[in-house]
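stage 2 :: seqdesign
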């Protein structure tokens, strides 16, 4: 009986984590410029794009946008 409960809790947690990951990715897509690619994978959300590292360093609004969503 406890194993069933544990398995169900694991499935619920995985589903919630996936929903949060998708929600974060959607929020980032809405906020970031179109040249920044936002993808989800097993580990979370991946941001990529030409010169993204440089842009994050130079653009304070981009840093604060990302930091605000990660709270």
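stage 2 :: out
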């Amino acid at each position: 009986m406890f194993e069933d409960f544990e398995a169900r809790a694991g499935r619920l947690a995985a589903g919630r984590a996936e929903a949060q990951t998708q929600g974060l990715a959607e929020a980032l897509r809405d906020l970031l410029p179109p040249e920044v690619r936002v993808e989800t994978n097993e580990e979370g959300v991946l941001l990529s794009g030409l010169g993204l590292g440089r842009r994050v360093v130079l653009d304070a609004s981009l840093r604060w946008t990302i930091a605000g969503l990660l709270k």
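stage 3 :: structure notes
- Residues 2-69 form one domain.
- The chain has a mean pLDDT of 86.
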